[in-house]
Structures are given as C-alpha cells and as structure tokens.
Design goal:
Helix content: 25-40%
Oligomer: single chain
Strand content: under 5%
Distance between the termini: 66 Å
Number of strands: 0
Radius of gyration: 25 Å
Amino acid sequence: MKRIAGALAAALTLAACGADGAPERPGDPAAPGLSVSGTVEIGISGGRG
C-alpha cells in the first residue's frame, strides 16, 4: 500500500510540472547594474544602568 501511495504522489508531483503552460521569457529585462539600499547599525547595547 505504501508503494502505491508513493507512486501516486510521485505521479501527481510530475504531473503538476508545467500545469500553467510552457515557460515564458520575462517581458522587459531589468537594467544592468547593482543597487543596494538600507541601513546598518553596529554597536553594543545594554550595560548597567
């Protein structure tokens, strides 16, 4: 029984691949380059107070 359940699970997993159709190339590729944003804080917090 476990073999049948395993085979069924594998078959369903493989059947789900490509369920929404063939893969499509993205429309407008992003501009080349690197962009980084955000904040960084370094320090020691706590102590006696």
